[in-house]
Amino acid sequence: MKTRWMTTWRHLRHVLTGAAVALTLAACGGAGDAGGAPPVTPPTTDTTLADGNSTDLRKIIVAVPPPATASSPGTTITTLKIHYHRTNGDYTGVMIHTWNAAVSPVWNEGFVPDGTDSFGVYFNVQLATTTGVVGYILHIGDDKDDNGVDQSYTLQPGANEIWRIQDDLNTYTNNPLGAAQVDIDTVRVHYLRYANDYSTWGLHLWDGSGLDP
User: Fold this and answer.
1) How large is the greatest C-alpha to C-alpha distance in the chain, in angstroms?
2) How does pLDDT run along the chain (213 residues), one tens digit per residue?
3) Boundaries of every domain in the chain
């Protein structure tokens, strides 16, 4: 009797277990059951698509910025600006003739000033190349400054700017007259006495000094 009951219980337990498994598979759709939910496809990443531009709602878009690339250094622009000051303040007919590393004008002519400033007039020289020596001469007609001596300037990379004064053979890289217009024929002499007794002191000039009163 006992043996028959145990056999019946084992059979019933197998039946109940099978029923439970069948119910679980039915709830999940079952493996290979065409009527159930389709198997879940793991999300994919596609870095070739722009953010939000996928037709697959399950696709995960990974926005990866393009790798940073070293920017190429900017090209250095070489220019030459020549300022010119005439002592009498008259710039009527003033021109500049250039050659070598600069564009040459028509023979026996020149380029007119590009503008004026507190120093005088200035020329934005038209360069033929960004290196080398610019030959130039400032003139009014056939009247050439600096006693007709050809002038030159060696170009440096970047912005070049020089100042020239009538009948002065020096090439200045800064305004020699300063911000304000001054009389370049005037010489100022500074004199210091430690005793601070200046009442009887003066400045004596004589012929040939170039500073005759």
Assistant:
1) 157
2) 545 555 555 555 555 555 555 555 455 554 444 555 556 555 555 555 555 555 555 555 555 555 555 545 567 899 999 999 999 999 999 999 999 999 999 877 899 999 999 999 999 999 999 999 999 999 998 899 988 899 999 999 999 999 999 999 999 999 998 854 445 555 667 777 777 777 787 777 666 555 555
3) 1-31, 75-203
Alpha-carbon gap, residue 198 to 204, rounded angstroms:
14
Six token digits for residue 134: 């610019």
Cα distance between residue 181 and residue 78, in whole Å:
29
DSSP conformational letter for 172? B
Cα end-to-end distance, the chain, whole Å = 154
The CATH number, out of the four listed (2.60.40.1110, 3.40.30.10, 1.10.287.110, 3.40.50.790), of the domain defined by the range 75-203:
2.60.40.1110
pTM as predicted: 0.52
* Rg, C-alpha atoms of the chain: 47
HSE at residue 198, side-chain half, CA atoms within 13 A, is 8
Alpha helices in the chain (DSSP H): 2-28
3-class secondary structure for 115-149?
EECCCCEEEECCECCCCCEEEEEEEECCEECHHHC
Nearest to 149 by CA among 172, 134, 167: 167
